[in-house]
Amino acid sequence: MFVKSLEKFLFKQRAIVIGVFTAITLVLGYQASNIHLDASFNKNIPLNHEYMKTYVKHSDDFGGANSIYISVCDKNGDIFNPEFFESLKSVHDQLFFIPGVNRTLVSSLYSPSTRFIEVVEDGFAGGPVIPADFNADKAGLQKVKQNIEKAGLIGRMVADDYSCAMVSSQLLETNPETGEKLDSIALAQQLETEVREKFENDKISIHIIGFAKMIGDVASGAKDVVLFFAVAIVITALMVWIFIRSTVLTILPIACSIMAVIWQLGMLNSLGFGLDPMSILVPFLVFAIGVSHGVQMINSIGKRVHEGFSAKQACSASFCTLLIPGGIALMSDTVGFLTLLTIDIGIIKELAITASLGVAVIIFTNLFLMPVLASYIDFDKRFKALPADSHDHLWEKMSRVTKPKNTAIILVITALLYGFGWMKSQEMKIGDMKAGAPSLHEDSRYNQDTFLITDRYAISTDILKVIVEIHDDNLDDDIAYDCTSHATMDLIDQFQWRLSNVQGVQSAISLSTVAKVVNTGYNEGNLKWRSLPRNSSSLVQSTARIETSTGLLNRNCSVMPIILFLEDHKAETIERVISSIKAAKAEMETEQVKFLLASGAAGVMAATNEAVEAAQVPMLWYVYGAVIILCLISFRSVKATIAVVLPLFVVSTLAQALMTYLEIGLTVSTMPVIALGVGIGVDYGIYILSTMIGELRKGNTLTHSYFLALKERGSAVLFTGLTLAIGVSTWAFSALKFQVDMGVLLTFMFLVNMLGAVIILPALASVLWRKEK
Amino acid sequence: MKSPMLKKTIKNVFYTLVVCSVFSVTAQSPVAAIQSKLASKNLLVDITLAGSTLIAVGERGHILLSSDGEQWQQANVPVNVLLTSVDFKNDKVGFATGHDATLLKTTDGGFNWSVSNYQPELDKPLLDVKVIGDNVIAVGAYGLFLQSFDAGQTWQDSFQDELLIEDDRLYLNDLKEYEPDVYQKEKQFMLPHFNNINVVGEQLFIAGEAGFLAKSDKDGEDWQIIETDYFGSYFSIINVDDSQFLAGLRGNLFKSEDQGDSWQALDTGVKATINSAYHYKNVTYFFANSGNIFYTSNNTDINDYELDDGKAVMSGVVFNGFLYLATEAGIKKIALSEFTSNKARD
């Protein structure tokens, strides 16, 4: 009916069909060529999460500047030598001249603003830490060392053990030379060539961290994907050729799948999306899924040609038999991916759109166009003469899984695996489990630099800010008020101290901390006065000169963050700190003084972790819901639905157990993998079972039905599993850690789902259709 | 912290001379210190021995005890203010001072403390406490002076108007006669900070802000200012044998051989403020900022030991062959063998 008329429509005007597809490909190809790399920070965070509302609300004042830190280290562990100070000065000067660096904020021992203040008999005295007449001799270096101590720079500008010194600055929004938005990727490259390569030598090492540098490293890592793509295409092509032993039939699925990728990229660009390091993997998936469906098609066509049909007959017949299972499978992929839209994180939504678009496109390129194209093929005699299928003995062996004894064994093992997997999956951790920038490998240069800097200085890149909001009706917008209230400042101080004691908090700072230090200064530097004065006018004196640029207060002191420096951003660390904050908040919050979560990099991670954890279960419900409904519609059988879905469910549980084993946390990048895996994994079951059910309904026994299904589709299913797995397993060589994680998990999902479809599914079926034996 | 700022309730408390009063805790009650594993790594201001137990006090009401110098236990302290000084009568009874004019007392060797005085409304810290038998004296900012003759049962506070400079005294006397209200207000911040008190037999010495040095020959009943040539603040005065040392801002150190009447400067070589002094077996130690410990064994030549981290050293005490330090970064210890006269660092 529908299939028949569609077949007539397509095959009657083959030239027009091909023309239309060519035209679309040209237009979308042009669009695709304009696609840009796009790595926006906001896409990665759950903007509607409670914490992120606080974050966004205060991001203008306390957004966390885009800083760059360069630690210059002496390899012998002591900076007080002339060569070191020479290098430090060079790095300082060099950073000053890199476009995009905020020159006024370049800060190191050499910046004129780096001064020490000391108490003298009649007040304060001070000067630059490195005096104008600095001479790098013993006396000069000794003087600088004393000044460093007086200025309290240890841990911030100089390493705790005097082995390194820091040059830091903030980055501008725009490049002042071009007037365009600052290109983090180019800047990261410049830091590499103009700072690291230039000044690193056998005595000096250079360590660079900062958001822009990380983005640069991630982007250059993401570029390797092109290479993986090429490798995947070559390997896949080779495998298809071995499978079908026909050059034309090899080119066909590969070419159609590449066409699907082009369409997908073109549509993305037309919709205004870009590619970012995470969704750059989707073209792989689209290609691999395209090839796997293409192989079903050429397999079917080839079989019919071997049986003696003409090319056109073989193609239209294959179109008719494969449109329904192929279409259902691809639709369930699409719907499976679309369920990711329910997760309120920009990047996952984007992934949902990218992947579902790509998969939907395959219906057209590989189910419609491919058989039409194949119908033009003039198969040579040698190909026609090949035997129809030479694997009958294998299929016969495999169909024995439906024998009662084997069925029992398989189902018991499956149940045991499931039980074991379920236990392990309960231990799966949310969030990043390793220290350092999560996108990059632990042993990457960037992360090694991060470890060195957090180890040797009293600073950390894992910052969690508790935003303290003052709610006071009497508060005048224009007048600094609450930094003069002892009660408020003391409450902030107590809150901060409580959190400082939480395991995983390295140090903490707030306006109160600084006010105490200033008060000490006004009392001759005597530490017996490192306390908050009760008297408002003394308190004003202690806070008045603290600039808003410190990030410790806003203009009228109605918002004062408490900044916590965490030891790392492992999920358990963040979770522990967040729950301590909540406990302290419950006890200490008043009508006037509110402690709000959260800002800072670790605050964002906390929100993301919570959003991911909250989304995980609903996401699985939606994916399985979609798959179940599609199966019910297409098979009109509850038994068939159970036989398809149950193995999938076991495999996703095992995938979670694998995550526990490999210490892969559930993150923004690994969470969609389960949905993708289920969406694609269902294809195998649908292909196998659609033939099997047909044969069962014809009155065949279950074992024989399964044998016939394997004969018809078995080789294509096995092949598909391998193709998909190989395509994504190339990611394991990526420089980006999350791509490795995704690659490993997807490979597992594809392979094991395939095994599930050919082993567990028939075993289940033989229980469900006991009568038909 | 929601209770409203208490109105100044200290009318009629201060009179020109000594007024007896037993302080009670005011309506604004203190917040107890919380247990903290970081206490021994944060600012500690004073350290002493009670019998054979080390006791250190510091910020946020931290009082730490240790019987071996390794394991530190935090005492129960009813305040969370910065504590500034601690001294013991014997191994059980001791006193500690702190901000908000806090005076704490323990009778169980430092494990539990109770509030003897707490007056946040004064906004003045007590800075030093000394115990000599039943005589306990605590001094603090703006001439705060509390004394007990019965081991802390009752306390007296006094205002030493003889320690005012002449002009101020005349001005205050005028005010007292014609504008008593203004007098009470003005008087509060007229005297300099009393940073350190030292007791030598019946003699008392107070070292303080801006070159202030005073002496009483009769247990604090009469005071006289001793003029010195230095106008920076003194933070410590100590007697060693027949000599006295006076130490203060920026490494200024003076010695007197005549009960404090005349002073001669000693060269420390480093401009680091000296916070306190301590004498043990022929060696006198001066604990200073930027990680410096000056020490002398002949009362004349000053050596300098420098801690690597450059953190301020506030106080020290010898225990089990080590000098235990209360520093900006918590407890530290140095073997006594490090302090030999020829081991001065360059």
TrEMBL record, chain A:
It is a multi-pass membrane protein. The keyword Kinase does not apply. It is found in: Cell membrane. It holds the Pfam family MMPL. Keywords: Cell membrane, Membrane, Transmembrane, Transmembrane helix. GO terms for cellular component: plasma membrane. This is RND transporter. It comes from Psychrosphaera saromensis.
